[in-house]
Design brief:
Layout: H1 2-25, H2 66-79, E1 87-92, E2 95-102, H3 106-116, E3 123-130, H4 134-137, H5 139-175, H6 178-184, H7 188-214, H8 217-237, H9 239-254, E4 262-265, E5 268-275, E6 279-283, E7 289-293, H10 294-299, E8 302-304, E9 310-320, H11 325-337, E10 349-355, E11 359-369, H12 375-392, H13 439-443, H14 451-461
Helix pairs in contact: 5-7, 6-7, 11-12
Length: about 475
């Protein structure tokens, strides 16, 4: 029995020592209590072990051989990774010190992360550096690997390029159905814009599909993001160009005038030759070409003399302050009504504008039909006719009168003294008389001058010689 009891005690001591060693080498030793050690029969109890440290704390003891096991484990792992073949590890009390070189900067942090995951490691001192030598960085090998990868990718890249070409070709074929888009769109400019948008959408869509086949959608996102930023910058830089393009689109839709219309755009006057995608081309009344940017035309005040055939002319004439303005106005109206090129409806009109220092200013107005009469010629003939009628009727058209004042020391002027009331009025002066229109004024040619209109028509009928497409459409209503 004593021998049996001794065997039991020895077995218990062996088991206790084994359990203690295993717990000290394991991360769970900090969380598990130490086992009780069997004592001889005469020992009433076993002394308790100290409490284990809290989770995340460093154990206060370390079993023998732990540092050597950690070194072997780290070097075994690094031995399986080519990037860490020149890395060395030293361990003391669980503190790992890494030294050596690696090919890339990212491998430095990777080695530290691997070493820190080994059981029993307290902390890692990382002294690894990147190998900057030509042989150490494996630049040649990396270039060779990438070259081989590119060669292997050539067939896939060819397939992706073929897909892109097919999708883009479909877009061009759809956009090439010009008759359909010209029928849908209100004008040719908008039809071309729709066709361009379809081509752009199919080309970009084909590029997306091709990059997805290559697995490079991340590259597409980066390219599109950069293109967006560049597009915003270009938008600000080319603001005037974009504004002019949008104005061209709006003018092509609105059609504010026709070809050969006589217009005034702000301070520019002439006849319309064509409306292009960038500018409105006029021919001035002296035969010169004038290009006005469409952005200016779109915002400008436009006067179109051609839209309404009837047009009014006016001019001012002054009579003597002593004359009867009502009689002068009546005489002027009758004189203009007798002119063959002045319209009866609306009838001619005369208005007293102001009373000056030595005259009364009267404004005479008349209407003509621009399709049969030139406005400038008609106004010129009417001025001559009314002036002659007023002079024949005894009305004076005074020149400026200056009054001179002399003091008492000035000798008298050697002129005949005119007694008050001795001046007799001119017979018929201030009274309306029958209007008399000279033969030259009645029969003079006042037909419209079509020199500029003819030049515009000839230029529009000439075959295109590199000229921009005209956006004016006679089949659409004018705004």
């Amino acid at each position: 029995m004593p021998q049996l009891r001794l065997y039991v005690v020895l077995a218990g001591l062996f088991l206790a020592l084994s359990s203690t060693s295993l717990l000290a080498a394991s991360p769970l030793s900090a969380a598990l209590p130490a086992p009780d050690v069997a004592s001889p029969a005469d020992a009433p109890s076993v002394a308790p072990t100290p409490a284990a440290p809290a989770t995340g704390a460093i154990a206060d003891t370390q079993d023998a051989g732990a540092d050597a096991r950690i070194v072997r484990r780290i070097e075994g792992i690094f031995g399986e990774l080519p990037a860490f073949r020149d890395v060395r590890a030293q361990v003391s009390e669980g503190v790992v010190t890494l030294s050596g070189t690696v090919p890339q900067d990212a491998d430095i942090a990777r080695a530290e992360a691997i070493a820190g995951r080994v059981s029993g490691v307290v902390t890692v001192e990382n002294h690894i550096e990147r190998d900057l030598s030509v042989s150490g960085s494996n630049a040649v090998g990396t270039l060779a690997d990438r070259t081989q990868s590119f060669v292997r990718m050539i067939p896939l890249a060819g397939v992706a390029l073929a897909i892109w070409a097919v999708i883009a070709l479909i877009g061009y074929l759809i956009a090439g159905v010009g008759a359909l888009w010209h029928r849908i769109a209100p004008n040719s400019f908008l039809a071309e814009l729709i066709a361009s948008a379809i081509r752009f959408v199919f080309v970009i869509g084909g590029l997306v599909v091709a990059l997805d086949v290559l697995g490079a959608t991340a590259l597409l996102s980066a390219v599109l993001g950069g293109a967006g930023v560049i597009g915003i910058a270009l938008g600000f830089a080319m603001r005037d160009t974009i504004e002019n393009y949008v104005a061209s689109l709006m003018l092509s839709l609105r059609q504010p005038f026709r070809a050969n219309d006589h217009v005034v755009i702000d301070s520019y006057e002439g006849r319309v030759i064509r409306l292009t995608s960038r500018a409105t081309v006029l021919m001035t009344l002296d035969g010169n070409h004038l290009r006005i940017p469409n952005s200016t035309v779109f915002k400008a005040v436009i006067v179109n003399f051609t839209r309404n055939p009837a047009r009014r002319f006016d001019f001012l004439l002054g009579i003597d302050a002593d004359d009867d303005p009502d009689a002068a106005r009546a005489l002027g109206r009758e004189t203009m009504a007798a002119l063959p090129f002045v319209l009866a409806e609306p009838p001619p009109e005369a208005r007293t504008e102001e009373v000056g220092d030595s005259n009364i200013v009267i404004c005479f107005l008349g209407w003509i039909d621009q399709r049969e009469t030139d406005w400038s010629k008609a106004r010129s003939r009417a001025i001559a006719a009314v002036k002659g009628a007023l002079e024949q009727g005894g009305f004076a058209l005074p020149e400026p009168i200056y009054r001179l004042r002399f003091d008492e020391r000035t000798p008298p002027l050697p002129v005949q003294q005119i007694e008050a009331g001795s001046v007799q009025p001119v017979p018929g002066k201030g009274k309306p008389v029958a209007p008399s229109v000279t033969a030259s004024a009645a029969h003079e040619d006042v037909r419209p001058s079509d020199e500029v209109a003819g030049m515009v028509s000839r230029e529009r009928n000439e075959p295109d010689q590199g000229q921009e497409k005209d956006l004016l459409d006679s089949s659409r209503p004018v705004e």
